[in-house]
Amino acid sequence: MATYRYRCGSHGSFDLSAPIGTAPGTAPCPGCARPSTREYTAPMLGLAPRAAVALLDRTAATAETPTVVSAPPPRPAHRRTPLAPPNPALRRLPRP
After folding, report:
1. How far is residue 49 CA from its own chain's centroid?
2. Which of 51, 41, 52 is nearest to 16 (CA)?
3. How far is CA 9 from CA 12, 17, 26, 30, 50, in A?
4. Any idea what the Cα angle at residue 49 is, between residues 46 and 51, rounded to 5°?
5. Which residue, among 47, 36, 46, has the nearest Cα to 13 in the 3D structure?
6. Residue 95 clears pLDDT 80, i.e. is over it
7. Distances 56 to 47, 50, 59, 63 between C-alpha atoms, Å
8. CA 90, CA 39: separation in Å to the nearest integer?
9. What is the C-alpha end-to-end distance of the chain, expressed in Å?
């Protein structure tokens, strides 16, 4: 099944699902039942995973309206790596 888009002069666009290659040139509008002409758009053959669609939507949104910040993020409290717990076997190693 493929999704086809039609446009009504008074109610705007609506989608219609039909087997590939069987879409009519006109379809009745669900709001007023008048014949609506088909719009030729990019193929909408299937659904993508929800996470992928959300990522694409967020990416497209930042292209037009990027997030503005007033300052860089704060630095971490300390950058030192934590020490390993004391191990008695490590005490016998030579110190640098």
Report:
1. 9
2. 41
3. 6, 20, 12, 12, 32
4. 145
5. 36
6. no
7. 13, 10, 5, 11
8. 74
9. 71
**Cα 55 to the chain's mean position, in Å?**
3
Torsion angle of C-alpha atoms 82, 88, 92, 96, degrees rounded to 10: 10
Q: How much is the CA Rg of the chain, to the nearest whole Å?
A: 30
Structure tokens at 76: 């971490």
Q: pLDDT digits over 42-77, tens only?
A: 776 667 788 888 888 888 888 877 778 888 888 877
**Which helix (DSSP H) or strand (DSSP E) does residue 55 occupy?**
helix 50-64
Kindly state the DSSP code that residue 57 receives in the 8-state scheme. H
80 vs 45: CA distance, rounded Å? 53
